[in-house]
Amino acid sequence: MSLAPVLQSLPALSLSTPLARQVDYMRISVTDRCNERCLYCLPEQFQAWSPRENILTYEEILAIVGVAVERGFKHFRVTGGEPLLRRDITHFLRELIRTPGVETVQLSTNGTRLPELAEDLYAAGLRRLNLSLDALDPVRYHEITRGEIGPVLAGIRKVQALGFPSVKLNTVLIRHKNEAEIWPLIEFAAALQIPIRFIELMPVSLTEMLTEENFLPVGEVMAMLADRDKLIPQDEKMGHGPAQYYRLKKTGALVGFIGALTNLHFCESCNKVRLTADGHLRPCLGQHGEYDLRPALRPVPDRNALRASLNQALAEKPPEHAFRNNWQPRRIMTAIGG
């Protein structure tokens, strides 16, 4: 059964007043390839990777970052696919962190390569990590990701031992897949004293995933947790994303909720754009509009052309996503970037 009737029954976001959005956050995908096949992200038989000549070089990405900083961007997240698959990723991160005007750099990863790369990442100056963790049970984890949880848990232990000051766990909610994992994940995060965020399923790669049978709203999860513990709202903003945080009184766990579909005010404070691995600037994950930056980069970067493209993309950033309107993805999530 389609989820569209449920989502379309939600009232529309009121746009009668200007949106107070300072766009200063760019998510940079460095590869569309991944070593896992998460149900909500990468179709199992998909092989249509971007040709390697279309993938931006690190020098081209840094040229874009330099222009973005001039435009007021301060915060950058490196994503994929799985970014730690790309060769010399620690060199790129070191250069990005050193770029004048860049205030924060974060890395989103599935964690599978952290056991071997965590020390190099720390030495490069990286201090902020977001790790995907959709289940603790090895069978459930494999069912959702087609991967193995052992390296992920080893990677989490490694970054904890190294003393990374900002580590967060991300869990995508899928009904009948990881409901039973929610409380164990919270206890796991509480024991490590790191935040965990629960994210509503979005139609980012396969519309058949977003059904009433699969969709688990964050409000239902909050009610589930409230039966076991008290949720204390946290006023302090953590990071640069849309999560709303609560402290669980008994366990001490810090839990965030990202409800892109059920939170009708989700887009009002959106502060981000996405740079795809093949050089397209995408102002909104849930709208198809993209701006190809490669003509302004090749054969050599043209800063004036890059400025013009960035300004156009920001001027045309839509007021809200279209996920509630029978959305049909054209590109898989690993091609867009996390």
What's the count of strands?
Answer: 12
Find the CATH superfamily. Answer: Aldolase class I
SS strand fraction: 15-25%
Radius of gyration: 19 Å
Order of helices and strands: HEHEHEHEHHEHEHEEEEEEHH
Question: What's the total helix number?
Answer: 10
Query: Within the CATH hierarchy, at the fold level, what is the topology?
Result: TIM Barrel
Distance between the termini: 27 Å
Unreliable segments (pLDDT under 50, ≥5 consecutive)? Answer: 9-18
For the biggest sheet, the summary is: 12 strands, mixed
Q: What's the domain count?
A: 1
* CATH architecture descriptor: Alpha-Beta Barrel
* Integer average pLDDT: 86
Description:
The protein has a twelve-stranded mixed sheet with strand order 7-8-9-6-5-4-3-2-1-10-11-12. It is built from ten helices and twelve strands. The chain is globular and about 60 Å long. It has one domain: TIM Barrel, CATH 3.20.20.70. Helix 2 (58-70) crosses helix 9 (303-315) and helix 4 (114-123) packs parallel to helix 6. The longest helix has 13 residues, at 58-70. Strand 10 (272-275) and strand 11 (280-282) form a beta hairpin. It is α/β, with parallel strands linked by helices. It starts with a helix and ends with a helix. The model is unreliable at 9-18 (pLDDT under 50).
